[in-house]
Amino acid sequence: MDARDPRWFGEDPATDRRFLTREELARRWRVSVRTLERLHAARLGPPRMKIKGKVLFCIDDVLRHEQTMTDRGRRR
């Protein structure tokens, strides 16, 4: 599934922002959910929020983080 495919995202109808769950982000990055937890603990991953006990990542923040990581690789 492509990142631009609307089925890839979860939507919050209250704000119409798009979110990924931990499982969706892990699948997107091809890492384990535990790896995402380690990145969060080390403050290396994208910002996240909890809504009704569920950890969510705003897709805009994820894309920005991915771009930052891509840019870092180009500077070497």
The rounded Rg comes to 13 Å
The tally of beta strands, per DSSP, is: 4
Poorly predicted regions: none
Kindly name the structural category.
alpha+beta
Do you know the CATH topology?
A: Multidrug-efflux Transporter Regulator, Chain: A, Domain 2
Task: Give the proportion of residues in helices.
Answer: 40-55%
Give the averaged pLDDT, no decimals.
Answer: 82
Count of DSSP-assigned helices: 3
What's the CATH first level? Mainly Alpha
Spatial order of strands in the largest sheet:
1-2-4-3
Could you give the order of the helices and strands? EEHHEEH
Strand content: 15-25%
Largest sheet, described in full? 4 strands, antiparallel
Task: Note down, in words, how this protein is organized.
By secondary structure, the chain is of the alpha+beta class. The protein has one domain: Multidrug-efflux Transporter Regulator, Chain: A, Domain 2 (Orthogonal Bundle). The chain has three helices and four strands; from the N terminus they run E-E-H-H-E-E-H. It has a four-stranded antiparallel beta sheet with strand order 1-2-4-3. The chain is globular and about 40 Å long.
